Amino acid sequence: MDEQSVRWDDLRVVLAIHAAGSLSGAARRLGLSHATVFRRLDGIERRLGVSLFVRGRRGYTPTPAGEDMAATGARVEREVLGAERRVAGRDLRLSGTLRVTTTDTLLAGLLAPLLADFRRMHPDIVLEVAVSNQLYNLTRRDADVAVRPSSTPPEMLVGRRIGEIAQAVYGSRECQANNAAEQDWHGLDWVGPDAQLGYSALEAWMEHQAVAATCRYRLDSMLGMFSAVREGAGVAVLPCYLADADSRLVRLSEPLAELSTDLWLLTHPDLRRVARIRAFLDFIAEAVIERQERLIGKHG
Predict the structure, then answer these.
(1) What is the pLDDT of residue 33?
(2) 30 or 291, which is more confident?
(3) Distance of alpha carbon 200 from its chain centroid, rounded?
(4) Can you give the pLDDT at residue 1?
(5) What is the pLDDT of residue 92?
(6) CA separation (Å) from 284 to 43, 134, 236, 262, 270?
(7) Residue 239 pairs with which residues in a beta bridge?
(8) Which of 19, 56, 172, 250 could form a disulfide with 232 if both were Cys (CB 3.0 to 4.6 A apart)?
(9) What b/e sequence results for 211-243 when a residue is b if at least 16 CB atoms lie within 10 Å of its CB, and e otherwise?
(10) Greater confidence, 19 or 142?
């Protein structure tokens, strides 16, 4: 191979540094050490005889050559990922690895027993679950399937709406005993989302209800909020499917129509005919549809 030829690994390194703006960020994206990324970049620049980045206080700024190489890397990455998805899409075996992403509350309050049932039905499928409140990039195959609440699922994905998630205000039984009626909300301590959770609809609702000012306990996950309310730290808006099942909590309001959201089962179009993914989509959809009353907050 020509010493000055550009390799796919070179493009990956340059693309990661360009996207992250730093070696440490690129190292996290690539799953490598900071020192390894530094050595690889140095080797690429020496081999090609050109500077790809200017090192400064604010990180790594691409030179024109760096911009060109990063753009080429992005095009090649799209082609490589597309080829991988198309090849995977021809897999007709009920075996192999299936990576699913969902939220902490959905896993804890709804999906954990369903995933266990799916594993028992398909012992040759290796199930990986990524718990995150951020939507994984299914185009990059960070996950194969997403089970997520969303009012506007990404247009590049395919799937189906499998339910509606209701939410209401909950407090501990001790909170109810202290006369936590709906008209007294303003005098209560509130638990809410922090900026990292990115739950703007709930933040807006709390502002509209004039209770944001009494929210002095914020967490970056709904499951964290649920735990805080259960321990008597205050009241909060929580998903009914999670909070109704806990005897330590009591519902203090009817389901809040303005905070209702759809539940989606999503995958990439290239993967929807993969046997293990098709089996998972069908199984979860049927199981969740059977549990609609829990999702919409019907007691009993």
Answers:
(1) 87
(2) 291
(3) 16
(4) 39
(5) 58
(6) 48, 20, 28, 15, 19
(7) 167
(8) 172
(9) beebbebbbebbbbbbebbbeebbbbbbbbbbb
(10) 19
Q: For tokens 């005919």, what's the residue?
A: 273
Under a CB-based contact definition with an 8 Å cutoff, are residues 163 and 262 in contact?
yes
pLDDT at site 59: 85
The tokens for 161 are 């709406």
Q: Could you tell me how many residues make up the chain? A: 300
Report the predicted TM-score, pTM, of the whole model to 2 decimal places. 0.67
Distance of CA 248 to the CA centre of its chain: 28
